[in-house]
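User: We ran a pulldown and think these components assemble together. Before we commit to crystallization trials, I'd like a predicted model of the whole complex to look at. Sequences follow.
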Amino acid sequence: MDKKINVFLFFIFVLGFPLAYFLMPKAVKSDNEKRKLATFPRFNSKEYLAGTWTKQVDKYIDDHFPFRTSFISSTDYFHAAKGFNLKNSERVVVLPKKRAKPQGESADSSNNQMDFLDEFEEKYAGSMLIIDGCVYPMGGGSPAMSKYFAEMVNEYARTFKGVRVFSAVAPLSSAFIPVEKYAHYNSQNKRTLLAIKNNLKDGAIFCDVFNELNEHSNTKLYFGTDHHWKPLGAYYGYVAFCKAAGLEAVPMEKMTKKVKYNFLGTMYQHTQDPTVRAHPDTMEYWVPKVQTEAVKFGPYNTDKPSKTKVFYESSSGGNTYSTFLGGDEPLIRIQTGIKNGKKAVVIKNSMGNAFAVFLVNHYQEIWVVDLRYSKQNLTKIIKENNINDIVFAVGMYAAMSKGTIGMMRRLTTQSGVYVPPPAPIEPNPSDETPVLPDSLNAE
Amino acid sequence: MVFSSLTFLYLFLPLSLLFHYSTKNDLFRNIFLTIFSLVFYAWAEPMWIFLMVFTALFDYSTGLYIEKKRGTPWAKVGLIASIVVNIGLLVAYKYGGFIYDNLNYLFPLPFDRPQNSLPVGISFYTFMVISYVVDIYRGEIKAQRNPLNFLMFISLFQHLVAGPIVRYSQISEQVEKRTIDWSRMSDGVTRFCIGLFKKVAIANVAGVLVDKYLDTQLYSLSSYEGWFGIAMFSIQLYFDFSGYSDMAIGLAKLFGFDFHENFRHPYAAISVGDFYRRWHISLGRFFRDYVYIPLGGNRKHQDRNILIVWFLTGFWHGANWNFALWGTYFGVLMVLEKHFKFILDKTPRFLKHGYTLVLIVFSRAIFYFVDFNQLSYFIGNLFYSKHAINPGFLSDITTHVFWFILVIVLCIPWDEIYTQDHPVRNRMEVKYAYIRPFANAFLLVLSTMLLVNATFNPFLYTRF
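Assistant: Here's a predicted model for the assembly, 907 residues in total across the polymer chains.
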């Protein structure tokens, strides 16, 4: 009898999951993974013979397996059951260097955007340190690479005479690991950022973000579950900028304090570590008491604005950091109630989002340019709008990569004209929605 | 397609089972099984299916020819033709690039390196067809008359990708007619679920540690971590391969076939020779019956024969010199064990076990590192490293400690300790029989959960 039960039970599961697939509603995207789920590929004999069609079917089945989200979150129990964590546990996890590209990714590869993203994500791959549920990258940048970033900033200073150019590069969270034996990452971050300072010339101004953060390193300045700094860290970055720019930073008490809870960010999503999951971040942030109006533009135009906001109060869960500017948009223009005629351009990656929102305290108009997604000609924007200050507000990885430095350099010369990508080598008929920059609305 | 994929488990397997059990007609069952096996093979390698079908039809014809000409010189001609064609295809597709690289190193060749990918399963099905024609030549089996049956035998998805190397003599009757009963099906379910668990919950977990210690942190490893990494690779290799064999054997039972065992708790071995009587048994027996014994076996030039067999065994595992070195390493150990058997015989069992484990685990380094510079660096580090222990090593131990215990428990040869007629085993099997279905269901769902989790593919940036 038990043999029949054994076989029946097996058949129930093996047949039951496919049946559940047909009965359950289908998701089209995964918020946790920040990506679109695969669509079922149309049959194509050429792709079939090349073996790519079947891979797409595999991907579709993987992405739409019944109870997928529940299964994924339940895996924590398995990992927890494998052993136990020591108190003050330290773990090194190795993130895969290359993940499978999501469907649709090849559609806009002509501008190397996704290739670049992969390159950027690789910076986060490799060894990550987990201490008491907080994830830190293992490294502190490279002083040797700093000069390339500084040279690019110097070019801006030379090109835009009369415009102040600031370098406000944020250190990595590894600079502030609260364990003595990792103090060398602190000095490595410091050396890297000082090397930028030492290579700046032609009037480019250095903002000592590291020092400002370091003075407050007894508080948590970076998220433990995400790769960004906390708004508090961004605030000290803003203070460092104000000191360099001769501005008076607005005290936190004069802004409206808000809180969001249970933030499990990118580092949790990538490590899937139970101890990280057990320590979700709380995000305290400060909203300047300044009237603002913001519009965003697509990557290739400055004449078709659509409304956006400086603070997206509804962002939550894995997208909590998108509270600032709604995430990464190619180009945003913020107009404020500060009628002093001062205008700034912030060239940033996602680290700059939490930073840029503080500048509404000081400028009448702020153009926030995402170095990765904006294809507009920045020279034109700077000249036509009589910009006073340019601020490079980026995380250290962006300042350490020749790819990202090249992107920041190209901002001033690119045409802002959309160039359709050449036909992909292996066309994918199921990619109905090209992955364009303006769809990338959060980091 | 691989067994440990959601596509296989929840699309291919249910469909193939439904078709198989929808009829009791053996001809229809064989047709369904052949079609499903070809679809299974073509899932990964649509183009290489022609090569496999060619091999099957060629050896089907050669088998008939050899049988017809048995006793005449033409039978030998047919046998040699078959071996030359089969080995020729294997060499061309598996070793073509390797041969090119070596020749080109000695003197530049005027043509480009062959760019073909390795046809999936060619190492396995080539040996299957060779054993088939040799056994016919020797008069040990009768040639299969029905080409469909022979194609099904060669292409059976249960063994096609990673063995075991099934001999025709083992399942010749079941190719024609299979009886399916609850007992066999139940055993198949149990075996499949255990194999899936071994692959997904043991081998894949070990694989993460292997990547970390033998790849990412390779150049900053302390000696302790080096041994740990290579021990994890030993675990990964065993549970991956034996898990796959378990799944193959279990699936075969679900479709009415009985495959022979391919692993018998190899890490319980007390000598290197014993280890390889327990590890990938179907491959060892192939080399024994079709290379070692024809070379003279233990009757003449035994040392030479052992070295040749192990050199070839090494190369069978991969087209690179490190595999040849790995094979030779075992050949030398086998020869030494033969000559110093009197010492081993007097050695306490636990010492023999320890000696075997150390040599086996060490051999994994040769197997793992294709690059000789990395290999020599790593082996040097195993015995002396200037690097301190990396942060997180202790945590990797503690966070896997129960998993290590499970691995050890699964390596113990319980069925040798508690044999079929052991009263404790009999009592337990009767008393706790009702647990098995639920335990299997648990393993299946747990493995599914881990497979689904492996599809989790997060990005730093939204890509909606």
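Chain A is about 35% helix and 20% strand. That may be worth checking against your pulldown data before setting up trials.

User: Thanks, that helps.
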